[in-house]
Amino acid sequence: MPALDQLDQLVTKAFDGYVVRKDLAQKFKGNYAVPTYVAEFLIGKYCATTDEEEIKEGLEIVQRQLSERIVRAGEQELYKANAKVHGTVKVIDLITARLDVKSDTFLATIPSLLLNDVHISSDLVYEHERMLTGGFYAEVEIAYGDPESNRPFSLERLRPIQLSKRGVLQDVARGREEMTTQEWKDFLIRSVGIEPSSLSARAQDVLFLRMVPFVEKGYNMIELGPRGTGKSYLYQQISPYSHLVSGGKATVAKMFVNNANGQRGLVCQYDVVCFDEVSGISFDQKDGVNIMKGYMESGEFSRGRESIRAEGGIVMLGNFDVDVEHQQRIGHLFGPMPKEIRDDTAFMDRIHSYVPGWDYPKIHPDMMTEHYGLVSDFLSEAWRQLRGESRLHLINDRIFFGDALSGRDRRAVNKTVNGLLKILYPSSEMEIEDDQLEWVVRIALECRRRVKEQQKRIGSAEFRNTMFSYRLGIDGIEQYVSTPELHSDSEISPDPLPPGQVWAIGPGEANEGSGLYKIEVTVTPGSSIRLVNVRAPYGLKESLRAAEQVLYTQNKLLIGDRDPHGNEYSVQVRALSAAKGASSIGIPILLALSSAALGRSLKGGVVIAGTMSVGGTIEPVYNGLDMAEMAADNGASAILLPVSSRKQLNDMSDDLASRLMVIYYKDARDALYKVLGD
C-alpha cells in the first residue's frame, strides 16, 4: 500500500466513506470490459476505508462480484443455463431497450449474453428512460421464462450503477470547506485518477475545462489535439451521465427526437453528449447541422408544432494529424471537423470554449495516482446536482469585460466562468478568492477567443475584433488575454501588453545591428528607478539614466499629478534577437515607465524606437529603414520613430508600407500620447 500523504489524511477524514484509493480500480482494468466507474461503484461500497485489512476483504468481495456478474466472452451459454437451473441470474452489463410494435411490449438487450429479446415491464422502462437512448450500466436480475410474453427471458430487477443520494452536494461542500483551494484542485485531479504532480499547470487547466460540461447545462465545447491524450476518458469512464458517440452517423432521431414514436433523444437523457473522432461524424438528414446549431444556441428543438427543451451539452473531440503550429499554417484550428461544419462560422459561434488539447501530455501509466480520490459515482452525482446552481451573481460586481466581447462572447465566457467556479466552490456560501477568479476568467476568455480567432481566419469581417480583455474590480487595470499558440514569445502581438511593458528596437553595440527588445517595468513600494539587468551594457545604463531624468523633470507633461518619486520602478530589458547591446532605447524605457505610472497599456502591435539626452532632446535615428523592416518581420503593425527620420523612410518598399504604419513623434510627450491606449 502506498504511504498516505498529508492530502490523503485530510480527505479521508473530510469525506469519510466517500473516498477510495484510485489505484484499486486499476487492478480490475483490462480484466473486465466495463468503465472505471462500474468497478469504483463496487469498490466504493466495500473499500471506502484506510484500513488495509478491510480493503483486502473488500477487494475480495469486489473480485467475486465482478467475476460472478460480468460475463466473459464464451460464457454466455453458461449464464443462460444457470438461469434455467436456478430461476434467475444476476449480471452487470450495458442495458438498452426498444419498443417491439408487433407485440406492443418493450424488449431489453443484454449484450454480454447475446440476448436482444428480453422482456421488460413498461414501468421499469419509463422509470429509466435512458435505456431507450444508448443505455447505461446496471446490475440486473434476469429470470428464465415469462408467462405473459412467452419470451424465454425477462428482466425482473434493475439497479443503475450510479448514486441517487440527495445530500451529496452538502457532503461535498462540507468537506471542501476544510481544504484550501490548491488542496481541492489536487484532490479533484486525483479523483479522476491522475496524479497532479504529473501534469504541468497548463495541462491541469485543460483537465479542469474537461470537467465543465458536467456541471454547466447546455455547455458546448470542442477539444482537438494529438492522439493518446485521454480526451474521451472523462466522458466514458468517470460518469454515467455522459454518453460517447464514436464516429459514424449522428441521426436526428437518436440525438433529438424520434418523430415516429416521440422518444426523446440523447440530449434529453444525458448531461453530456460527446462526439469522439468528430471528423468521422455525419448527419443522416440535410438539416441535421441546422437542428444542431439551433439546439446549441437555445437549448431547444422542434418536433412538429412542439418545442422541446433539453439540457445536455455537446462536446466534440478530435485529433490533429499535424502539430498545432502546422495546422495554423495550412488552415485553421477547426480543420479536422466534418466538412459540413469546418468552415461554418455560425456553427463555431455556438461553441462556448475551444480547449487546447495540444497542451495535455500523452497518457502514461506513471501519471495514474495511487492516492485517495472521491468515488466516481459520488463525484458524478455531485457534478450533476451542481448543474442547477450558479455562481455568476456572486461576481457580477467584481469582473468587467472589455468592449470587444459580443453578446454571444459574454454568454460563452460566463458559462465557462460559472462552470469552473462551481467546480472550485461547490458551496455558494464560500468566498471566491481574487486570484482564483482571475485564473478562471483568463481561461474562459482564452478558450472563447480561440474560437473567434478561427472565425477571423476564415475571413469574416464581423469577427475581426478579438482583443478580449477584462478588469478585476471597477478601478482595476484592463488586462488583455491572448491565445498562446498564435504568437511566439518574440513575435509582436496585436494585443496591448500590460501596463509598463513595451516593444522596443534599438541599435546594438559596435557591429551588432538593430535588436528587438521587450521592456518590462514593475511597480513596488519605494522611491527610485532601478535596472534589474545584471551586467547591463553601458548604452543601456545611459538610456535608463536619460529616461529617469526626463520622467522627473517632465512628470507633469507625462503622468500628470502622479508623483514619480512615489513608487519604485524596476526596469528589465530582454533581448529577443541576436543584438544584446540595447543602446539608444531611452524613449521606449520612458514610455514603459510612464505606462506603469499611469496604470494604462500602450496600443497593441506597436514597436518603439529612439532615444534622447538627459535634457529631453530627441536624438536622430540613423537606421530607421532597417528598424522598420525588423518591426514588420516580427509581426508589428506600427513603428514609432522620431520625425527626423522621416526622409529615411522614403525608400520604404510598397510591400513594407502596406504591412507597417509609421508614426512620427517630435518629443517625449508627443510619443507617449500617440501610442497610449484608450
From TrEMBL:
<dbReference type="InterPro" id="IPR020568">
    <property type="entry name" value="Ribosomal_Su5_D2-typ_SF"/>
</dbReference>
<dbReference type="GO" id="GO:0004176">
    <property type="term" value="F:ATP-dependent peptidase activity"/>
</dbReference>
<dbReference type="InterPro" id="IPR027417">
    <property type="entry name" value="P-loop_NTPase"/>
</dbReference>
<feature type="domain" description="Lon proteolytic">
    <location>
        <begin position="513"/>
        <end position="675"/>
    </location>
</feature>
<dbReference type="InterPro" id="IPR014061">
    <property type="entry name" value="BrxL-like"/>
</dbReference>
<protein>
    <submittedName>
        <fullName>Peptidase</fullName>
    </submittedName>
</protein>
<dbReference type="InterPro" id="IPR014721">
    <property type="entry name" value="Ribsml_uS5_D2-typ_fold_subgr"/>
</dbReference>
<dbReference type="GO" id="GO:0012505">
    <property type="term" value="C:endomembrane system"/>
</dbReference>
<dbReference type="GO" id="GO:0006508">
    <property type="term" value="P:proteolysis"/>
</dbReference>
<dbReference type="Pfam" id="PF13337">
    <property type="entry name" value="BrxL_ATPase"/>
</dbReference>
<dbReference type="Pfam" id="PF05362">
    <property type="entry name" value="Lon_C"/>
</dbReference>
<dbReference type="InterPro" id="IPR046838">
    <property type="entry name" value="BrxL_N"/>
</dbReference>
<dbReference type="Pfam" id="PF20442">
    <property type="entry name" value="BrxL_N"/>
</dbReference>
<dbReference type="InterPro" id="IPR008269">
    <property type="entry name" value="Lon_proteolytic"/>
</dbReference>
<feature type="domain" description="BREX system Lon protease-like BrxL N-terminal">
    <location>
        <begin position="14"/>
        <end position="144"/>
    </location>
</feature>
<dbReference type="GO" id="GO:0004252">
    <property type="term" value="F:serine-type endopeptidase activity"/>
</dbReference>
